[in-house]
Amino acid sequence: MRKLRFGVIGMSExxxxxxxxxxxxxxxxxxxxxxxxYPAIPDYLGRRxxxxxxxxxxxxxxxxxxxxxxxxxxxxxxxxAHIVDDPRxxxxxxxGVLLARDDAEHHREMAAPFLAAGLPVYxxxxxxxxxxxxxxxxxxxxxPGQVFTxxxxxxxxxxxxxxxxxxxxxxxxxxxxTTVKDWDHYAVHVVEPLVNLLAGHxxxxxxxxxxxxxxxxxxxxxxxxxxxxxxxxxxxxxIRIHLDGEAGSRDLIFEDTFSAFRAALRHFTGIVxxxxxxxxxxxxxxxxxxxEAGHC
Length: 296
Known about the structure:
Layout: E1 4-9, H1 17-26, H2 30-33, H3 40-45, E2 58-64, H4 68-78, E3 82-83, E4 96-99, H5 107-116, E5 121-124, H6 131-139, E6 147-150, H7 163-168, E7 172-179, H8 183-186, H9 188-197, E8 205-210, E9 215-220, E10 226-231, E11 240-245, E12 248-253, H10 257-273, H11 281-293
Helix pairs in contact: 1-4, 5-6, 6-11, 9-11
């Protein structure tokens, strides 16, 4: 079976995903990648072994960013063969698209031509800042399962617990999920893993939201569990989920960026190949509902 061909589009401030996502498929050129404006990327790539650690079933073959010079550097660093001047020039040449911008206000416009063409699109987190806007994006799809979106941290082993580990904590009483930086772009990093962890508790009730650079959203579940999602508004600190149960406590701390990115990209590739069931939009909308609730 031939490799899938993906195009990567977009670049947003503070976000080097076109470099890292493409390298996870293609490998990378160490000399060119050393000049990546996001030094964490060559750092964690350098701790891996390529091609052994690459995703072998697909390649990023086309790139577009808002700046041709930036596109050329991404292509050189991440071994992408084709640079295009208009993202729509990828149509007919790729099997799927990686929309690597995390400024959600642009997602619908950028995804629209690819969704209209029936292509699967991986849209960076968060899909949208409101449920209504997310539903508008889903409405552009020509068939179920075209849209895939997530925080890769939803695939991080560090932020997952199996049922037996949760049961050992006893009846859960309180959870606190904390991320660095701003609410809009980073709350999803803990909200989505939290929704997955607490799937058996149902949807939470919104209790209170406090605004400002530090944003806190207080939640309550019918089971009696209470929780808080925090975006600290600062660069320093961990991304973590703290769980308190009647029989013990547990801290889940995110550590391995590369493995989380690779797992998410591998999952999308599996969906495109037809090996994995499409993502359930109801879970995505449950996450966005909480992100939207934090706009206070």
